């Protein structure tokens, strides 16, 4: 796999879009969504988005009664997409699936200017809502957080994403309460701090989604969360629907917890990407800096699939361990070879 593939990015054309072709989900309807999938963005060996596979994955979500998808979030590797690619993917999803599933575009950024631009464009393309994150790396003050979120909330409905282990900054409760009380476009919070926080916000009237699969059962049935934004639903949408909609089920949750824990053995989306490749759903392409899981972890996943049941997972092929040589890594090489991307063994 030490062959070279052209790396010069091609200009991605925006798809034509007519406002009469779509319906927009209301804020109140979004607040009732219980199962939202952070959908994976699959790639071709040259690094372009594999739209055929993406469409198939969305159709599987719809057929398993998933209610919403987050487009270009962490699982969707939106941070590795160009602006054109990111907006194309939102527009493509709206054009083909708007009437069947709620479409929430991740258009947040550490830059307020960029977040405003991407959010404006996303709503112009017809997304139902945006997912917004607090500025990361270049962290700001409490007043700066309020000003940042107010800027994007003035454009359209948004879910606020609190994930301090990625941003390095926990959003203070005072900020959430301020936004909830003063912005009609504030939908609720995707919370990754823990269920104590979920319960505290629910008690104060804020709509909450658990952002962690292995905590979502307790979050919903013990702490009042409306639902979950799920990574595991990429793999087992039917079982996630059962877990979310069919009442408290500690036995099912315990069984799925084996998969949930495996999916967190490395930062998202590394385990998810590896699993989907092993299931034969996506091509085994990784965009650096993401890197496939070890052989040991891939073997563990095969056993997890057997334990839960292959029939409960997406795809029709037998699960495979895959050899190291079957994975393709896509990344930019030094400037002296700037016209190429190295696709190599690992």
What can you see in these coordinates?
This protein is α/β, with parallel strands linked by helices and 346 residues long. Helices cover 39% and strands 15% of the residues. It has 13 helices and twelve strands. Strands 2-3-4-5-6-7-8-9 form an eight-stranded parallel β-barrel, surrounded by seven helices. The chain has a four-stranded mixed β-sheet with strand order 1-12-11-10, with no helix packed on it. Helix 2 links the parallel strand 2 and strand 3. Helix 4 packs parallel to helix 5. The longest helix has 15 residues. It is globular and about 50 Å long. The N terminus is likely disordered.
Query: Share of helix among residues?
Result: 25-40%
**What's the count of strands?**
12
Unreliable stretches, pLDDT < 50, 5 or more residues? 1-20, 334-340
What is the CA-atom radius of gyration, in angstroms? 20 Å
Topology pattern, helix = H, strand = E: EHEHEHEHEHEHHEHEHEHHHEHEE
Number of helices: 13
The strands making up the biggest β-sheet line up spatially as: 2-3-4-5-6-7-8-9
Distance between the termini: 9 Å
Mean pLDDT level: 89
Give the biggest sheet: 8 strands, parallel, barrel
